[in-house]
Amino acid sequence: MARGAVGIGLIGLGTIGTGVVKVLARNAHVIEQRLGIPLRLVRIADLETSRDRGVDLDGIKFDSDAEALIADPRVEIVIELIGGTGVARQLILSAIERGKHVVTANKALLAHHGGEIFDAASRRGVDVAFEASVGGGIPILRAIREGLVANRIESVRGIVNGTTNYVLCEMERNGEDQAVVVKRAQELGYAEADPSFDLDGIDAAHKLALLAAMAFGVQLTPKQIPTEGIRGLTPIDFDAAREFGFRIKLLAIARAHRDAQGGERIEARVQPTMLPERSMLAGVDGAMNAVAVTGDAVGPTLFYGAGAGEMPTASAVVSDLVELAREIRRGAARRVAPLSYLPEALHELPLVSQDEVFGRSYLRFTAQDRPGVLGRIAGVLGDHAIGIESVLQKGRHDTASVPVLMLTHPASEAAVRAALSRIDRMPDVTAPTRQIRIEEG
Fold first, then answer.
1. Angle, nearest 10°, between helix axes 15-26 and 28-35?
2. Which alpha helices (H) appear in 217-367, and where do they start and end?
3. DSSP designation for 338
4. Which residues pair with 278 in a beta bridge?
5. Do strands 39-45 and 61-63 pair parallel, antiparallel, or not at all (unpaired)?
């Protein structure tokens, strides 16, 4: 290995790992010009060693022994790209114990076991970098941790799952059922064989847990985040959104609620959301991601780019390699805490309950086409102080049940839930009501 070079070991030569090999080879010269020393990929471990990835591995030791890679004295930084929360956790902790810096894109692992991993790294005097875990190639974590460090963050709202954004955009564009679009997304490589983590909002909740920690210093687990995926949305919801002037996005939302006495609570949720067509987030199409961050000093900012894929995610992984290599070159500890806040400053904060969330809603009722039904629905809403802003009725009079589409005036979530509980028990209502919350701007 060249004098002064930093040795890299890669665990996991899948799509992203292959992208890392490509970026390190393609951009070796420009990376060395920026870093001052070369990065050398000296070893790779993967269970599948016979498949051709289409990259040149000449001079790189390649086998299935991840523990031997971690023990190799030439390896100073270990990249973990196998995913999951079992084996990956053990390998990362093993690397840390041996005094190796770690780069990972594993948001699920960090969302569930980040405290344990960061504590181990702190005790051992090494760092864990994870820019690729949220937003793919978008440098959103580094922006919050460093670029926006002067701000008290007020809110973070993001489209952080490219699979669901692709599905929603295609449903809107073509009027297709969700199952048809999901199948196409799988064929194009946008969706996994089992897309549940994406469609049910779980992936977005993992990412929001990390974003909330970075933005507010709050210790939050994915299980604490109210999470609703995109299942159950139909083409008629997109038609209604268009008529009402909105687009539907799966949004990850975190906000700080601060009172005059200095108390703070955190609102966090993942759910399908209607956004005004004019808003910046509403314009994010296809498999792209975007995160809007508002700070008290900087005001609103928007970070946009490819949220997944071989090369964008590899870009983020290699950016972490460069940051850690700079530390190795300086012989210094990391300049900033991995979660932006010092470990002792991370704390639990009370959460704003879903019942307290206040805003407008889109409601899709399915009711029998009979005189007086709409009036009875409106009456229940009125009983709960929920005003009606607009109404659309779709379907023919000879159809047994028709959709009734409605926008409400602002109301508390508690009031909406109570009203819908009553409405869905009405004999003329033939299916559970679909609610989509509306974000202003």
1. 70
2. 235-244, 310-330
3. T
4. none
5. parallel
CA–CA dist 34, 11 (Å, integer): 25
Query: What are 99-137's pLDDT values in tens digits?
Result: 999 999 999 999 999 999 999 999 999 999 999 999 999
- Respond yes or no: is residue 223 known to be catalytic: no
Listed as ranges, residues in the chain with pLDDT below 50 are 1-2
Instruction: Give CA–CA dist 424/431, Å, rounded.
Output: 7
Contacts of 96 (CB under 8 A, 6+ apart): 102, 117, 120, 121, 124, 126, 128
For the chain, first and last CA: distance in Å?
53
Options 3.40.50.720, 3.30.360.10, 3.30.2310.20, 3.30.450.30; CATH of 140-306: 3.30.360.10
Candidate list 107, 207, 223, 249, residue with the active-site label: 207
User: For the purposes of burial, counting CB atoms within 10 Å of the CB of 418, is it exposed (0-12), middle (13-18) or buried (19 or more)?
Assistant: middle
**Residues 181, 235: Cα–Cα separation, whole Å:** 11
Name residues whose C-beta falls within 8 Å of residue 402's C-beta, 6 or more positions apart in sequence: 366, 367, 368, 369, 393, 394, 395, 396
Homologous superfamily of domain range 355-438: ACT domain (3.30.70.260)
User: Does the 6-136+310-345 domain belong in CATH 3.40.50.720?
Assistant: yes
Degrees (nearest 5) of the Cα angle 116, 122, 128? 75
The pLDDT value given to residue 441: 76
pLDDT at res. 1: 46
Q: Residue written as tokens 């952080």?
A: 160
185: nearest Cα among 202, 175, 170, 173: 170
Spatial distance between the Cα atoms of 403 and 366, rounded to a whole number of angstroms: 5
Q: Say what the pLDDT of residue 426 is.
A: 96
